[in-house]
Automatic annotation (TrEMBL):
The keyword Transmembrane does not apply. It comes from Oxalicibacterium solurbis. CDD domains: ACD_IbpA-B_like. Keywords: Stress response. It comes from the Bacteria. Belongs to the small heat shock protein (HSP20) family. This is Heat-shock protein IbpA. SUPFAM superfamilies: HSP20-like chaperones (SSF49764). The keyword Protein biosynthesis does not apply.
Amino acid sequence: MRTFDFTPLYRSAIGFDRLANLFDDALRTDAQPSYPPYNIELVGEDKYQITMAVAGFDRSEIDIETERDALKIIGRKQREDAPRNFLHRGIATRNFEHTFRLADHVRVVGAKLDNGLLNIELVREVPEALKPRKISIDAVGDNVQALKAA
């Protein structure tokens, strides 16, 4: 396995340690959990949807939490009162916990559970102060007159 040294990034940039940490996390040998299976879809400009197959789980057995830059989905299956005698068990209903890293200004706007599919809607909302804006160029005399009038 190849490793990367992010020391030069720390020497010349301020505030990018989060980006370096994301790279470190991605390069770790720990495999991301594959259960339950999920899709991540771009459904519109700055709109995303995570669809997770959670067959056998009830709404009360799934928790969705956000904290800073992370979305955590936790499934805890309730214990059944009566033991069941399966001849074949192909539907997995084991507990799970899956964490997704969210980019800046991405937030969860809704979640639905329908036909065994959990759909989580996300949107990126960049604040007006951070959006690009056009700066008009005034003549030197016009700018001076505007300052005097204020």
